[in-house]
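User: structure tokens for this one?
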Amino acid sequence: MITYMTLPGDTLEKIAADLKVENPAYLKEFHNTYCALHNRLAEPVHLKPGTLLHIPFGNEISILNQKISDNGDSLYYHPPQGKITYPIPLLGGMYTVRQLKYQDGRQQASYQYQTELKYLRAEKDDHFFSLQIFGSRKNGEESDSKISSLAKACAAILFPVEIRVSSAAQLKDVKFYHPESTIKNELEALKRYFTDDISASYIDQMKKKTEDKGHILTSIRHMLPVQFLFGAFYRAKYDGWTDSGVYHEFIPWLTHASPIRFELYNRILPKEQNETDEPLKIIQSGKSCDYRNLNQLYDKSYPYQEQASFNSRSVSCSHEAEYIFDRTDLVIRKITGSFEIRIGDVTEKDVLMMEKE
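Assistant:
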């Protein structure tokens, strides 16, 4: 046991997290066991700076945590062997997706659509889903512009697609349900209804893209809902407490640009006291570690070079996402992701909310 003098901002929760004690209420109990009667802590606990707190040290922490565990009072989830095993088939379902765009704190636009994942089958170590995107709205309204109508007509031909996912929740392959020739013929038939040159050019571009299997896989992988459901988040290794080790991921926050490389880690949040049905919450946080500038990111012909060095013109941005799971079976309930970047004197922010129905 040692005596600790509290600092401004200290709480039992903060001190417990620093000590890796699994329930802060037991810190109060520990202190009250050893302190003078007039120094005992009572609910609600408000620690003033300079409070002398008796706290466990060394092996006492392990003994206290064992007591907490034996009583079923631990507030922390500890992944077995440092890995969380997610039930991949249970990722299937209907998701409502909302994306908000901000500039200097003011909302500029909102988009809403639905993503449907139907679990199909398992083959060896891989899982197969049907992926469908529909119901797109901007600022609460369904656009009736010609280009929007054409895009929806093309999407109705291209989707659904079949995706193949590894046992580690990594997207491996994408296939159309219909032969390439059938899809091209149906796209070509749209020219009877969209007769202007711009529409014809758009349709020809879509036909050309269906020939490139690599482009199809990349396009699906760069959809934000797919990124959040099948990204490196699920493959993080935890180091014995709440934080995972550092890992890297390319995240496609910028529309029409190459994904930005981020250095990330996950943190498992403790549940609240006396909450029996509280979901499991995990925060993914990180900063960009991409040497490219904005112009290079928007230049699709500019490849990422592993050995290139970070410089003063490199893009600087942040990413954070909160994943909410059912605590019993680890089924995803909701994902909220945010991205912030400063361009000149302007701060741009994107927020994506993805909730399972």
